């Protein structure tokens, strides 16, 4: 009990000393700093910049070509190439995957016919031959060798204009 009273007495003394330290209102050093901080400063505020009047621009849409018309080499292409994919043809399974996601994993040969083994992203293995379609750009297989599958894709070049592009799917080691 005596130790408890002694601890309370020491705690009370510490609290009283803290309160007396905080109660002093001597800010003379702060006031002196504020008074001396502006001494020796000589400055000038720059005048505001002159406000220039707004210059209006008249947009002449009839003098420039439309940004919505496809162009080739800076000129508007008016003649269609005549190349178009067969949109009425029933799509094959491997046309639902981008060509970049398909892997050629091998070849098979039966009599004179060479088949390529294509692995889809879901892990399914497909056997394809020349004339089958791959990828999402209407890619028709032209040639199959032991190391690659060559196909001709039909890609959209501009608005309602199609172009042929040769692509190759290489054998994955």
Automatic annotation (TrEMBL):
**Gene3D superfamilies in UniProt:** 2.30.30.830
Q: Does the keyword Signal apply?
A: yes
The keyword Signal is assigned to this record = yes
User: A Pfam family for this UniProt protein?
Assistant: PilP
Q: Keyword annotations for this protein?
A: Signal
Leader peptide range in chain numbering: 1-23
- Identify the InterPro entries for this entry: PilP
| Protein name listed in UniProt | Type IV pilus assembly protein PilP
